[in-house]
Specification:
This protein is α/β, with parallel strands linked by helices. Helices cover 34% and strands 22% of the residues. Strands 4-3-2-1-5 form a 5-stranded parallel β-sheet. This is Putative peroxiredoxin.
């Protein structure tokens, strides 16, 4: 029986350790064969844009671009609709493979059978 992990990351450069933890857990889960859906909300929304992850620095942490690449290789990366609108981010602006979706999609993912959810 497969399980899915839905992770919502609300922190960005404003809380680097919490942000890095979310991306690290998501990447490790994908590498472990877990189906992962990583949601970028709040300040993490900026990481849906090309080049923004490369600006993120946290000593002794895996580079954020590498973690994003790992998540995208075996999971889903979603930018919150409202968070995108507040930051004037459109579908034309985001990294290839990033979807923009709202609360209804998030709720349907976390309410599905065999799903675990984490919020950072």
């Amino acid at each position: 029986m497969s399980k899915k992990l839905v992770i919502k990351v609300t922190a960005g450069a404003d809380a680097p350790e919490r942000c890095s933890q979310a991306f690290t857990v998501a990447a490790v889960a994908v590498a472990s064969g877990v189906e992962v859906s990583l949601w970028l909300t709040g300040e993490a929304a900026w990481f849906a844009l090309p080049g923004k992850a490369a600006e993120f620095e946290l000593p002794h942490a895996a580079p954020l671009p590498d973690l994003i690449e790992s998540v995208q290789a075996g999971g889903t990366l979603t930018l919150c609709t409202q968070c995108a609108v507040r930051r004037n981010i459109t579908e034309d602006d985001v990294l290839e493979g990033v979807r923009i979706a709202g609360a209804q999609v998030f709720v349907s993912e976390v309410m599905a059978d065999d799903v675990r959810a984490l919020v950072y």
